[in-house]
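Support request from a user on the community tier.

User writes: "When I paste my structure tokens into the form, the page sometimes reloads and wipes my input. The last time it worked, I copied everything first. Here is what I submitted, just in case something in the input itself triggers the reload:"
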């Protein structure tokens, strides 16, 4: 029982620290530049209709998990509105983490669907994790991975739009074991 209590306390501390990191990480331009540095992501800035960027989303969980973040939505390089993201999950999970997220819209239809007021990404949505040395992709349509020694090697996983969206994540910190099912819910407020 003592071990379980210690694990619970540890996971709550990690969850709270991840949410704290997320609250502090509001630098949109630095987050956009960070994503542009990845060759796998850079091409989406050139060919997408628009995108939503969330500099920091904090997530914590112990069986039931929750996360929250705020961001801006862009079209043609201009901010068109503000968005918030909330996520809830249930399953085998413990700990806390913070990550940046960017969602690219392939065309006007995908952009309009996201900016219609409220939008949800289901558990089946694909997300590509971008790190300095590796990338992984997972979703119901399959999975794939690629690794690089750096951005100059050109070795990248093949990544494209799925249902008009391309989603990329970049870990910021924390420690979380997560084998849960959940989704993200977005609220959009136009300017």
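"...and here is what came back when it finally went through:"
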């Amino acid at each position: 029982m003592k071990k379980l209590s210690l694990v619970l306390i540890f996971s709550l501390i990690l969850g709270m620290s991840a949410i704290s990191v997320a609250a502090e990480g509001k630098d949109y331009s630095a987050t956009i530049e960070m994503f542009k540095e990845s060759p796998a992501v850079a091409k989406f800035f050139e060919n997408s209709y628009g995108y939503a960027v969330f500099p920091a989303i904090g997530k914590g969980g112990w069986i039931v998990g929750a996360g929250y973040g705020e961001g801006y939505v862009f079209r043609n390089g201009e901010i068109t509105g503000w968005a918030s993201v909330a996520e809830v999950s249930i399953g085998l999970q413990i700990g806390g983490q913070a990550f940046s997220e960017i969602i690219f819209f392939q065309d006007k239809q995908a952009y309009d669907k996201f900016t219609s007021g409220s939008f949800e990404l289901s558990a089946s949505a694909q997300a590509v994790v971008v790190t300095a040395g590796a990338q992984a992709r997972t979703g119901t349509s399959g999975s794939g991975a690629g690794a690089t020694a750096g951005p100059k090697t050109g070795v990248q996983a093949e990544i494209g739009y799925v249902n008009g969206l391309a989603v990329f994540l970049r870990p910021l910190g924390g420690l979380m074991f997560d084998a849960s099912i959940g989704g993200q819910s977005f609220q959009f407020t136009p300017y």
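Agent notes: The reload is a front-end session timeout and is unrelated to the input. Strands lie at 50-75, 78-105, 118-121, 127-130, 134-138, 144-147, 165-190. The first helix runs from residue 2 to 24. Escalated to web team.
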